[in-house]
Amino acid sequence: MTVLFSICGALNANILAPARLYFAQARDGLFFRRFGAIHPRFETPAFALLVQGVWASALVVSGSFETLMSYSMFGAWIFYGLAVLAVPVLRRKHPEWPRPYRMWGYPVTPLAFTAVSFWLVGSSIAAAPAPSLWGLLLIATGVPMYFVWRRR
User: Fold this and answer.
1) Angle between helix 108-127 and 129-151 (nearest 10)
2) Is 0.85 topped by the overall pTM?
């Protein structure tokens, strides 16, 4: 029963969190303005949440759970590794910035995490090349879209 509650909580976070990304992108002018709208009564990004709910529902009925997990976790680990790698890069690039939190084991800890993340990505490519390449292609489509929206 505890595992079921944990899964529901994780699904809730994985469905609701991306809507906040659309919202933030729209507020920064990098996505459709409608996604940045706030519901007048509930003060939530209602349109972004609605679209994310429709998208999540479409994904659920479109394929197998294993395929969806292959695509999403492959992409997630790429960005987990890049986000953690940004810590030592930014600390070296901007030593004057405040450091309100000291990371235990720095710089070994973030570099080890990054290495493991990229190892997982590499092993995914080796074990399941087709879904991994489709995942990379999907991620790569975001690069030109970023530049299109940035130009606007």
Assistant:
1) 120
2) no
* Dihedral sign computed on CA atoms, order 105, 108, 114, 119: negative
What tokens does 53 get? 């709910």
Domain coordinates of the chain in residue numbers?
1-62, 63-152
Residues ≥6 apart with Cβ < 8 Å to 11: none
Q: What are phi and psi of 94, to 5 degrees?
A: -130, 70
Report the candidate in 108, 118, 134 with the shortest Cα–Cα distance to residue 80: 118
Amino acid 83: pLDDT: 93
Contact 103, 87 (CB under 8 A): yes
User: Are the CB atoms for 26 and 33 separated by under 8 Å?
Assistant: yes
Per-residue CA distances from 65 to 38, 72, 145 (Å): 32, 11, 28
15-67 pLDDT tens trace = 778 888 889 989 988 888 899 999 999 988 999 999 988 888 887 787 777 77
